[in-house]
Write a structure and sequence with these properties.
25 helices; homodimer; elongated; alpha/beta; five-stranded parallel beta sheet
Chain lengths: 663, 663
């Protein structure tokens, strides 16, 4: 598809050096940043961007563009230089404001597809792992929408990864899955520079990386990352391999062209005025020019962009024809691209009123069963706990290399990759959800945080949410986890009390622009709430006192709501009037108006919060004069009911606490 | 060293089946647990325990025993059966109380070396990763203490790992390091049963595991896990390989002997009465007997234990001779085994009074420099951020395969493995500390939690602790992290305000029995506190108001203490009397007596808490009528001071908040 020759000339070299020095100048101007990677990778990245990358800066969000993921996010100056040079809406002034407050050229790339930034990256290992999800989504979309004569989806996901990306465990997990899935259109360019921050990679990274990727089922190759023609050939070979993902180890010199070449120091420190000057001289650029773009590179870039623009035009014409040939599919395509769910989907949410007691993981499973047939983008999965998390729908169609367009993913025991891959699915407008035990939410926090930063509507199904886990004991009993999830900005944590709250929680999660954690029980809970309950307000009066003013407000979440209801009944028999507030979400409640909050939790009534987890944070709802029934130590192994009793989660203890509070 | 023949007979088979059925009965009795693994692995585990494992149940904690790590902790019933059968202090009654409240036979093994439980395991991937640390510690101790003619330390670390262990990224990270370090005395028996919870491993785990381990530099082999003689040979071959860790893939049938053999269901569900009966019949055991131990196995076990007892006796005799030949080393050995630090080490802590402003990561570096020469067990490291974390001491001796007895570990960009490996070092009484950026504490929470469960004195050096990180932006700016660490039971989180608090924090950390997180700044802070400051009390009055009763209490931690001090000065000029409380640790403050707490934070004085992180949790110190200056969104990329100003961390804003509070 390229109109540029496969041979490389002096202009190509100048273009690569232009990228190098734009990045160097940006870093120097900011007096902060990472010049080493841009200097090292510019040659092979130039090859990719001039000869292979299918994109059109005039329409950055064209759906079938290739994706370029800078997994080594610290090389952001390179990405911004590329985007600027290739005509994305990133003006030179923004490059000059690199790393300044309010600039679009943040220290690490921040997800903005309209600008050509496909993922937020920086935490190593995440970009490459999410790219696995992106490449999987590409195949999913291709199988869903492509028809004979119509290839709506057919693009490559390219990743620039560093040593650090490949040392992180999350990328090992994701790479194993990429090999398992045979993602032939995933191509990783590995900046194999033998240097990490602590020095030569010999100090800690002596494994045979390519052999490892081969063991995952990847196609591997090795090339001199400064030899453009060789890189070109390696990429063509990788493209020709359609059944396996490819990794090309591009041997480079970090800080190429600078006096600090091949040192760890050049990784993350500006070169300094003298270093910048020396680098410009070494690369044959005018030493006194800043942000200099030689005239010769402009036509080369224009030429490089032509095939992408043509491909995009061709694609759009094709889409028009597709609308004629496959109107229903075309409508689905529009819906897919818009990220919207089919109108009225909420009507399919089940009603659990008057049903038998069920674990909220089970009611969640019923919601999934109800929604999967009508929400085509819903793609579930579990880190090898499908039966426990109740994540798999009755019509489970496992996604694998024989069938990409399924609705279920077996992630294996790889929680962190699950999180990162879901981020990759979400940027393609799939609606992923994935399960594990709540206690193992710790394993994927890195990925959750990025979902929150990118505002991706990923749904986490965290089951076995308390000491109610029982016999599996402290290693499997979450204590600190619900609240430590509440702490993540932009994540909404929902701990429903029964089936109807579970259904509402799913509704909130699916309607959000941002990630949501559903916190679900292992054990059965009675059905107490109405279909039209107040979960979406974060907290609401589930049952008020018989008197106009309650003596006590019992606040509880999840499995403890039933306990609070039981306690309220006993209290009433003792002439103590209790209001029961179900509080599935702090985040949603805090977002309510003050008047509503004051109505639910009146200032002048004593309050007891009940939650089988860490107590930290509850004080802002019960005040210093209220009380909190919580667990601030590790749990214990034993039958769930015995463990609950051991930690004081009994009606008797609640009564005693209320009496002490009122005394 | 064995007196048992290398060939295997009917009694060996009976012994293996005894283990199988003890485990099956325990699970059935509890009506909870995991029979699949014990049934599957009993044959090869019997080979290990009868022919190879060097141990002496009469002295479970003999320092030079082999370590057996059940990384697949869900197979606890097998471990308890082994411990019971081989004479550890685990009576049959406890086996019958499997998974009951208060039993020593918890759902997953809980660290108790006196009982023969070398690690708390259950969360997959952790055991094998910590075992890497244990095997490294073994080499470290060997090099430190062994002398010609005296081999005090020479034992093998054995690991039983499952598919799940090997899918987890943390084990990939740790295995790469084990290969890098050439840990020849680490031998992993991989229960290669082709089944995980979601079904056949073909659904998600199709990589070539052994090729992967080969790429890490491991010795690999494959064997029929039910063929005892073949397992014996494979283990001998692994033992003969001294320069590389070994992994032996033992092909087994999960649930061997039961009607549910080779199914996922047998993994985690009791067999049921009929299933138990059928299994006993299939294995030739009396169907009506429970917890049955055939008479023939007792002498076989006694015989199997003889070499271990002899080795232990020989070792103790050797130690006596060592005391004569190397009295100084012997004294160090005793200290090492006791886990105590040399008396008076605290005297070496530096005094930072009147020194220039420094980042607390830098003052921490000076503490490390001062302590490393006098604390022989201190072993530092970093996940490839040594220069940033200031973790490496001036006399850095890198631990590698040429020199195990160093004081510094380059973990590479592998935070999770760092955490798990430190746990392994700590069970051998090394005093590990390891650094990364605070924002990446998320990556190792799984390992931190286990350190807390095991009460291991691991020290985490988490630097770049706030938006003060500056230009690197939101992906690198911690917001929720300090408080989410505070949430972990048993972990103490310390955020010192300057050099002297940093020194005190190190003292607290080194004197604790349990893990400690040091939260340190990137940016310089003025020296404000006395050498004899109150950090150990969690919070203390750093500067009181001129009046006897303050108008306002400013509470701050870490870098915000200096800001509070500055604000107090400005307030005084405005005739508002402020007390400044430095609060480096919630956990330590909460442990103080009520009177002290009330003295520091008087109930009737308005309070403003200042911390550049999530505000959640501060209400319990400032009350509902106090105020909190915090950050409850993600940060921003820009120079640190600009970012601080953007989020209101300025004297002006504090004054405004105080005025509003007092209005």
């Amino acid at each position: 598809m390229t109109t540029l020759p496969a041979h490389y000339d002096k202009i190509d070299q100048t273009l690569a050096n232009t990228l190098r020095l734009l990045a160097v100048d940006a870093v120097q101007e900011a007096n902060s940043g990472h010049p080493g990677l841009p200097l090292g990778v510019a040659d092979f990245v130039s090859v990719l961007w001039t000869r292979f990358l299918k994109h059109d800066p005039a329409q950055p969000e064209w759906p079938d563009r290739d994706r370029f993921v800078l997994s080594a996010g610290h090389g952001s100056a390179l990405l911004y230089s590329l985007l600027h040079l290739f005509g994305y809406p990133l003006p030179l002034d923004e490059l000059k404001r690199f790393r300044q407050l309010g600039a679009i050229t943040a220290g690490h790339p921040e997800y903005d597809p309209a600008l050509g930034i496909e993922l937020t990256t920086g935490p190593l290992g995440q970009g490459i792992s999410s790219a696995v999800g992106m490449a999987l989504a590409e195949r999913w979309l291709a199988q869903r929408f492509n028809r004979p004569g119509f290839t709506l989806v057919d693009h490559t996901t390219w990743v620039l990864a560093s040593d650090g990306d490949l040392m992180e465990g999350v990328s090992s997990e994701a790479a194993s899955l990429a090999g398992h899935w045979g993602l032939g259109k995933l191509i990783v360019l590995y900046d194999d520079n033998h240097i990490s921050i602590d020095g030569n990679t010999q100090v800690s990274f002596t494994e045979d990386v390519l052999q490892r990727f081969s063991s995952y089922g990847w196609h591997i190759s090795r090339v001199d990352g400064h030899d453009m023609a060789a890189v070109d050939t390696a990429i063509r070979t990788a493209q020709a391999e359609t059944q396996r993902p490819s990794i090309i180890a591009c041997r480079t010199q970090i800080g190429f062209g600078s006096p600090m070449v091949n040192t760890a120091k050049v990784h993350g420190s500006p070169l300094g005025p003298a270093g910048v000057r020396a680098t410009k001289e070494a690369l044959g650029f005018p030493a006194d020019e800043k942000f200099y773009v030689p005239a010769a590179v402009r036509p080369r870039i224009a030429q490089a962009l032509r095939p992408g623009a043509q491909a995009r035009a061709h694609w759009q014409a094709q889409l028009q024809a597709y609308r004629q040939a496959h109107p229903q599919l075309a409508a689905q395509w529009d819906e897919q691209i818009s990220g919207k769910l089919p109108a009225g989907w909420q009507n399919s949410l089940p009603d659990f009123s008057n049903q038998k007691p069920m674990a909220t993981r089970a009611t969640s499973g019923q919601v999934i069963a109800a929604l999967t047939p009508i929400l085509p983008t819903l793609v579930g999965g579990s880190a090898d706990l499908s039966g426990s998390n109740k994540t798999n729908p009755p019509n489970q169609q496992t996604i694998n290399r024989q069938n990409y367009h399924g609705n279920y993913i077996h992630y294996g025991v790889r929680e962190h990759a699950m999180g990162a891959i879901m981020n990759g699915l979400a940027v393609h407008n799939l609606r992923p959800f994935g399960g594990t035990f709540l206690v193992f939410s710790d394993y994927l926090r890195g990925a959750i945080r990025l979902a929150a930063l990118m505002k991706l509507p990923v749904i986490y199904i965290f089951t076995h949410d308390s000491i109610g886990v029982g016999e599996d004991g402290p290693t499997h009993q979450p204590i600190e986890h619900v609240t430590s999830l509440r702490l993540i900005p932009g994540l909404v944590t929902l701990r429903p009390a029964d089936g109807n709250e579970t259904a509402k929680a799913w509704q909130v999660a699916l309607e959000r622009q941002g990630p949501t954690a559903l916190i679900l029980t292992r054990q059965a809970l009675p059905q107490m709430t109405a279909k039209n309950n107040g979960l979406h307000r974060g907290a609401y009066i589930l049952q008020d006192s018989a008197t106009s003013r309650p003596d006590i407000v019992l606040i509880a979440s999840g499995s403890e709501v039933a306990l609070a209801m039981e306690a309220a009944q006993t209290l009433q028999a003792q002439n103590i009037q209790a209001r029961v507030v179900s509080m599935p979400s702090w985040e949603l409640f805090d977002a309510q108006e003050a008047a509503y909050r004051a109505q639910v939790l009146p200032a002048d009534v004593p309050k007891l919060a009940i939650e089988a987890g860490a107590g930290l944070g509850w004080r802002r709802y019960v005040g210093l004069d209220g009380a909190v029934l919580s667990i601030d130590s590790f749990g214990a192994s034993g039958p769930g009911s015995a463990v609950f009793a051991k930690f004081g989660f009994t009606v008797e203890n609640i009564i005693a606490m209320v009496r002490q509070l009122l005394a």
